[in-house]
C-alpha cells in the first residue's frame, strides 16, 4: 500500500508553494478580520449577466462549445478590442476563449517555450508568472523594477537581462500587485527592444478597464508590437466575474494555432454558461463597469491618501485595485509586518516579497473593499504603527 | 463636478473633506459647488433611505392612477400642482399611458388612504377617475435593495 517510489515531477517539486497560502490559512481561523488581501472585486457579477446565465442554463447551455469558444463571443471580443484599444484580431483564428487568463497564460508559455528558453519577468509580478514559465519548461528571469519610479517598465533594466535565449518578456499592466499602469512611451521602449533582440511580449491586460489616471494602452497597439505580442485578457476583474473562469487570448495566427492545439487537448472549451454570461457582459454591462470603476476610484483616492498620512507612502497606483505601500518606516520586514498586523489588529494584507524580492519592504493592499471597512482598516493600521514607536 | 453629486446621492452625510478625499477635488471647491447647488435647487434636501417595515412601522402606501381633464392652455400643471400640495401625497408624476398622473399616497391605515382618495383626491377639480393600488411590500426603493444583502463569499486572502 505505498505509492511508487520514483520521484514525482522535479520541475513542480522545485517550485515553492505560494507565499500567500500561509496568510490565507491564518486569516481563515480568525474572526473580525478586515481583509485587504483579496485579489478580486467585492462587487457581485452584475445581475443582468447572472440573469442571462440562468436563462441560458434553463435553455440547455450545458454542453461543450467549439474549442475556440462561441463565435458570437469571439466576434464581440474582437470588436471590443478594436473599439477600445485600436487592435485588430480575426475572431476566426486569432482569438481563443479560455478558462480565465490563467489558462491563456499557460497556453501562451507552453506554445512559445522550448526547453531552457528564458522569459524575463519584470517584478514585483503576479505570483503565477514565474511558476508557469517553469512548468512550461522555461527559465524565468526576474528583473526588479524601481519603486522610486512607480514600478514603470524600464527597458534598460530589461535589456541588461536579455540573452540569446530570451524568448519573451511577460508582464501585466495595470499591475497586480503594484497597480502601476504602463505608459505608451515605456511600452514602446520595450517593444523596440523586443524587435531589436527578437523576442515576444506576453501582455496580461486583465485590469485594462480599471484605470484611473489615464486611458489604458494595449501593448499590441504600439507600432511594431502586434506581430510579436500575445494579448491576455478576460472578464474576471472588469465585470466582477472571477468565479466564472472565462477569459481570452489573442495572438498572430501561427502562435494562436499552437495555443489552440494545446487547448483542444487539455481544456476542450471554456465553460459554456460562462461564455454566454460573457456575451451578455459585453453587450449590456458597460454602465455596471462604469459604476464599479467610479467606486474603485473613490476608494483609491481615500485609501492612498490615508496610507500616505500614516507614513506608508506608495507611488500613485494608476490601475487595478491595489496599493503597494512601502512599510520601511515600520522597521519591519514585509512578512513580519503582515503577520503582526494580522495578529494584533486583524487586518490582512499580503507581504510584498511574495511577488518577488523587490517587493520586500512593501505590502499589497486591495481596496476592493467597502469604504467603511477601508476606513476602519486605516485606523487599525494607524494603531499598529503607533504602538511600535 | 458631477462626481460630488454622485457621492452625496449615495451618502448624504459625506462631509466636504471626505468628498474631497474621495474625488480628488479640493475641499473649498467642494464647499463652493455644494453651496451653489443648494441655492439653485439642484440639491433639494438630504435624506436617509428608511426601511419603515423593518422599523416596525405600519404606515400604508398606495399608488393611485389619476385621470384628468386637462385645462386649455395649462395642460396638467394646474391640477398636478394642486394635488401635490396635499400632506398625504408623497409623489406626483405625469406619465404616459391610459392614465395621466400617477401619485403616491401615504396614510396611517388603509381606511385613511381610502378616505383620502374618495373624499379629497377624486374631488379635485378636473379629476375624472382614480384607480388605487395598495403597496404590499417594498423590495427596492430609491435604488436601494431592501432585501438581505448577498453574503461575501470571497476567500480572505487570494493572489
From TrEMBL, chain A:
Pfam families: Aminotran_1_2. Keywords: Aminotransferase, Pyridoxal phosphate, Transferase. CDD domains: AAT_like. Its cofactor is pyridoxal 5'-phosphate. GO terms for molecular function: transaminase activity. Signal peptide: none annotated. Residues 32-381 form the Aminotransferase class I/classII large domain. Belongs to the class-I pyridoxal-phosphate-dependent aminotransferase family. This is Aminotransferase.
From TrEMBL, chain B:
Residues 65-137 form the Transcription regulator AsnC/Lrp ligand binding domain. It comes from the Bacteria. InterPro entries: Dimeric_a/b-barrel, Tscrpt_reg_AsnC-like, Tscrpt_reg_AsnC/Lrp_C, WH-like_DNA-bd_sf, WH_DNA-bd_sf. PANTHER family: LEUCINE-RESPONSIVE REGULATORY PROTEIN (PTHR30154), TRANSCRIPTIONAL REGULATOR AZLB (PTHR30154:SF34). This is Lrp/AsnC family transcriptional regulator.
Amino acid at each position: 500500500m505505498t505509492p511508487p517510489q520514483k520521484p514525482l515531477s522535479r520541475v513542480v517539486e522545485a517550485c515553492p508553494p505560494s507565499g500567500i497560502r500561509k496568510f490565507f490559512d491564518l486569516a481563515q481561523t480568525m474572526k473580525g478580520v478586515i481583509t485587504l488581501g483579496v485579489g478580486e472585486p467585492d462587487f457581485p457579477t452584475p445581475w443582468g449577466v447572472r440573469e442571462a446565465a440562468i436563462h441560458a442554463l434553463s435553455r440547455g447551455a450545458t454542453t461543450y462549445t467549439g474549442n475556440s469558444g462561441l463565435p458570437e463571443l469571439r466576434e464581440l471580443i474582437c470588436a471590443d478590442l478594436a473599439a477600445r484599444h485600436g487592435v485588430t484580431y480575426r475572431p476566426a483564428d486569432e482569438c481563443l476563449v479560455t478558462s480565465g487568463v490563467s489558462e491563456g497564460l499557460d497556453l501562451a508559455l507552453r506554445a512559445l517555450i522550448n526547453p531552457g528558453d528564458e522569459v524575463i519577468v519584470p517584478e514585483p509580478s503576479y505570483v503565477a508568472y514565474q511558476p508557469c514559465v517553469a512548468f512550461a519548461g522555461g527559465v524565468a528571469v526576474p528583473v526588479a523594477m524601481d519603486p522610486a519610479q512607480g514600478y514603470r517598465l524600464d527597458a534598460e533594466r530589461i535589456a541588461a537581462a536579455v540573452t540569446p535565449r530570451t524568448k519573451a518578456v511577460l508582464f501585466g499592466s495595470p499591475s497586480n500587485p503594484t497597480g502601476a499602469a504602463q505608459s505608451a512611451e515605456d511600452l514602446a521602449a520595450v517593444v523596440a527592444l523586443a524587435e531589436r533582440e527578437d523576442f515576444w511580449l506576453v501582455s496580461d491586460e486583465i485590469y485594462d478597464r480599471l484605470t484611473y489616471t489615464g486611458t489604458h494602452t494595449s501593448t499590441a497597439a504600439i507600432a511594431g508590437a502586434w506581430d510579436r505580442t500575445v494579448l491576455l485578457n478576460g472578464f474576471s476583474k472588469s465585470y466582477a466575474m472571477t468565479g466564472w473562469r472565462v477569459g481570452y487570448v489573442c495572438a498572430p495566427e501561427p502562435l494562436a494555432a499552437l495555443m489552440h492545439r494545446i487547448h483542444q487537448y487539455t481544456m476542450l472549451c471554456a465553460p459554456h454558461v460562462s461564455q454566454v454570461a460573457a456575451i451578455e457582459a459585453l453587450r449590456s454591462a458597460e454602465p455596471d463597469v462604469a459604476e464599479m470603476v467610479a467606486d474603485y476610484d473613490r476608494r483609491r483616492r481615500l485609501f492612498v491618501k490615508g496610507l500616505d498620512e500614516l507614513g506608508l507612502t506608495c507611488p500613485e497606483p494608476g490601475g487595478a485595485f491595489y496599493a503597494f505601500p512601502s512599510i520601511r518606516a515600520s522597521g519591519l520586514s514585509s512578512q513580519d509586518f503582515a503577520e503582526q498586523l494580522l495578529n494584533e489588529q486583524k487586518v490582512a494584507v499580503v507581504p510584498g516579497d511574495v511577488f518577488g524580492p523587490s517587493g520586500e519592504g512593501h505590502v499589497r493592499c486591495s481596496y476592493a473593499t467597502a469604504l467603511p471597512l477601508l476606513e476602519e482598516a486605516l485606523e487599525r493600521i494607524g494603531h499598529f504603527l503607533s504602538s511600535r514607536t | 463636478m458631477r462626481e460630488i453629486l454622485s457621492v452625496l446621492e449615495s451618502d448624504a452625510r459625506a462631509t466636504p473633506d471626505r468628498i474631497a478625499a474621495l474625488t480628488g477635488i479640493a475641499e473649498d471647491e467642494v464647499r463652493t459647488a455644494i453651496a451653489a447647488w443648494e441655492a439653485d435647487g439642484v440639491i433639494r434636501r438630504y435624506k436617509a433611505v428608511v426601511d419603515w417595515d423593518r422599523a416596525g412601522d405600519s404606515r400604508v402606501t398606495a399608488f393611485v392612477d389619476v385621470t384628468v381633464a386637462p385645462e386649455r392652455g395649462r395642460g396638467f400643471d394646474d391640477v398636478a400642482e394642486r394635488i401635490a400640495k396635499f400632506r398625504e401625497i408623497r409623489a406626483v408624476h405625469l406619465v404616459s399611458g391610459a392614465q395621466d398622473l400617477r401619485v403616491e399616497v401615504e396614510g396611517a391605515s388603509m381606511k385613511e388612504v381610502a378616505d383620502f382618495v374618495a373624499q379629497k383626491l377624486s374631488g379635485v377639480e378636473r379629476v375624472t377617475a382614480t384607480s388605487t393600488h395598495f403597496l404590499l411590500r417594498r423590495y427596492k426603493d430609491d435604488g436601494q435593495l431592501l432585501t438581505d444583502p448577498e453574503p461575501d463569499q470571497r476567500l480572505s486572502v487570494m493572489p
